[in-house]
Specification:
171 residues; two-stranded antiparallel sheet; 29% helix; Ser/Thr_kinase_AS; Transferase(Phosphotransferase), domain 1; alpha+beta; 8 strands
Length: 171
């Protein structure tokens, strides 16, 4: 949904800046992402620091990158304790999205690429671009959500619930 760049703010803090593509659909997704995460704060969720319309999102910088690099790169290694801790962090983040927010948030694309690891290897869930808040309003807008291989069978019957995130997390 866009490119991500590393940046440094005037105060010296590092940030990740996501530039979204320029199209009508993407502007709708940009607005959805800002609305979905502007008021959500949890230690296991990547924090939105700000945004610049029409297409820049500024996030906290997460030093160790995405979980997929640590799972699938032969040069990197996570021991059992680290993997266990990461799994708990992801579960805590999902629990907060599903039950701790004022309005339930469904991520709908939990996968290793959307889990970032900070300098202490604490996991943070990222990429809320197509997240859903509250109840499903239109099935058509949900058809494109998810990554093959991480999508629950319930998608075939449009049974949209927090169980989809739980399934993807388990994969």
């Amino acid at each position: 949904f866009g490119s991500v760049f590393e940046g440094v703010l005037a105060d010296g803090s590092r940030v990740a800046v996501k530039r979204v593509s320029d199209s009508r659909q993407v502007h709708k997704l940009f607005e959805a992402e800002v609305v979905a995460i502007i008021s959500i704060h949890h230690k296991n969720l990547v924090r939105l620091r700000g945004f610049c319309c029409p297409n820049l999102l500024v996030y906290e910088f997460v030093a160790n990158g995405s979980l997929d690099r640590w799972l699938f790169d032969d040069d990197k290694f996570l021991d059992c304790d680290a993997r266990y801790s990461i799994a708990l962090d992801i579960a805590r983040g999902l629990s907060y999205l599903h039950d701790g927010c004022r309005t339930r948030v469904l991520h709908l694309d939990i996968k290793p690429q959307n889990i970032l690891l900070d300098e202490k290897f604490r996991a943070k869930i990222s990429d809320f671009g197509l997240s859903r808040q509250g109840e499903l309003q239109a099935v058509d807008e949900m058809i494109i959500r998810g990554t093959p291989g991480y999508m629950a069978p319930e998608w075939l019957h449009f049974q949209i619930s927090d169980k989809l995130d739980t399934y993807s997390f388990g994969v």
